[in-house]
Amino acid sequence: xxALLHEIKECTICKEHLVLGPRPVxxxxxxxxxVIIGQAPGTKVHASGIPWDDASGRQLRxxxxxxxxxxxxxxxxxxxxxxxxxxxxxxxxDLPPRPECAxxxxxxxxxxxxxxxxxxxxxxxxxxxxLGKAAKKTLTETVDNFQEYLPKxxxxxxPSPRNRFWLTKNPWFEVEVxxxxxxxxxxxxxx
Length: 191
Description:
The protein has nine helices and four strands. The chain is globular and about 45 Å long. The longest helix has 19 residues, at 172-190. It is an alpha/beta fold. Strands 2-1-3-4 form a four-stranded parallel sheet, with helices on both faces. The chain has a single domain (1-190), classed as Uracil-DNA Glycosylase, subunit E (3-Layer(aba) Sandwich), CATH 3.40.470. This is IclR family transcriptional regulator. Residues 25-182 form the Uracil-DNA glycosylase-like domain.
């Protein structure tokens, strides 16, 4: 695992497409129990090199009901984005994750992760990649039908402050999904 993480952090396969240059951000340990698959680092995470080190990360930790110490304990959480580097700015936010990363690195990472009990799929890119045809037409439908994907996967919307409108429009998320997410996470962190 150590050698693989080093290789990922040295990766430059899409450097010509990255405005800020390559700086792969990933965190994992062979004993990780929960894998969080998000989109790609933003500018703050690119600068710090620490996954989810921004407002979205603070919101995600609230959703999970975990402390920073728990979240950044690699034996508890592996953090594997769909794109490992900041993809650049688009018209309405960051560009999509670079398409080279997941096919290149996800399988080798999962081959090293022997204790995974839950994979949290954050956002449409992770959900389409991992759920394939089982994903619904929209992110909202996929998240609303989260029970179908348990116990292996749990789909979530992105915890970005930009998603306030989605959260307001879908109050069932906090009532139905978050309690199950927190219960699953707590159960896995206990043993």
